[in-house]
Amino acid sequence: MHHSYIDKYAELDSVIHKADSRLKIIISFVFILFIVSANPTAYLSFVLYGLILLILLAVSRIPFLFIFKKTLVVIPFVVLIAVFIPFMKGQDGIILFRGIVLRSYLSILCMTLLISSTKFTRLLKGLEQLKIPKIFIMIMSFMYRYLFLLVDETQRMQRAKESRSFKKTKRFRIVKILSNIIGVLFVRSYERAERVYLAMCSRGFNGRARTME
Amino acid sequence: MRKVIEIKNLNYTYPDGKRALENITLDIFKGDSVGIIGPNGAGKTTFLLHLNGIFNGNSSVKVCGLPVSENLNDIRRKVGLVFQDPDDQLFMHTVFDDVAFGPVNMELESGEIRKRVDDALGSVDMGDYKERISHHLSFGEKKRISLATVLSMNPEILVLDEPTGNLDPKHRKDLINFLRDMDVTKVMATHDMDMVLSICNKIVIMDKGRIVALDATENIFRNKELLRLYSLD
Question: ipTM score here?
């Protein structure tokens, strides 16, 4: 099955897409450093950073709505973690809270822009050239390879379930079925991981991640 | 003729206590094509996994005269094992990286690796797929690339688990022709009787972890009673 999630628009042809992936990785990293070290009350700098990202986004021609949706996914986690701060520090806490949410949103926006405008293979190549340990790159590569398989498997199970349900399922039952699906998925992934490891061993893998020089 | 695989009284029990292989004794000679057939759950895959030391049983397997359990690195260069599910076999994100995985682990130099990848992909007619991403390929394409991932290591012995399983008729025929013309020792577990008939010179029938018949292909196919007993006719 064909899906594309994170790098759906990575095939576009803009200045940003064409730029060297190493350059993009370094710039994103530095930019995020700037964002997270900004003073929580320095609203002007937040506006400035946001503006820069929006301009880059416009240049990259990736649909704004696509990026917006991707970035929203992370917000609940941030809010959940930061929501207690105002209760602990009073008036200062609210400013701190606002600062944390703003900074994390801008950082996520920056990362999403990087990932959406770079093909995953080139991103990995770039990280490799930047001397990121090979084991991390391998883990990311596996994640990318098997994420899609996992989604396929979930969809197939969902369909199998639907083709055997005749009337509207009660809400409690849906939760039960869902937890079942998650359990089965976990077991299947575990077994697949085992088989993949055996396939790697069969081709001479002995625990050291190697790449072509 | 030179024995390339020697197995004496191989036993294997799964970690959960289930007996998987019992008293397997089998010699495979250079240039042989051995078809392993038998019902699901007969132990075919478990048996294949012993040929390159993934499973060790009571370690009575020798490949090219070397005990498997003590010479894993050498054995895995000599024995190319292709798994049944191409999604297990193809674990890198691009086709090139996958086919190069074996040669990279063999620490070949990059020019040689590139050449081997080109040759292996060319021989399964997938030369244009180098930069493709594995999860965007069709099942047949993945199956053929799986074979290439092992061919790039130039194995002396090719071990295949259901090579034609789930392939469409055209690609199945291409694969059979390709395997028949290939000049290496082959061991394959399969349900595809036509393929066995056109490629293999020897047949092993397995049932419940045991070898119940072992003979030249024409003798097995002449033995109507045996074929009927295992529903192979």
Answer: 0.88
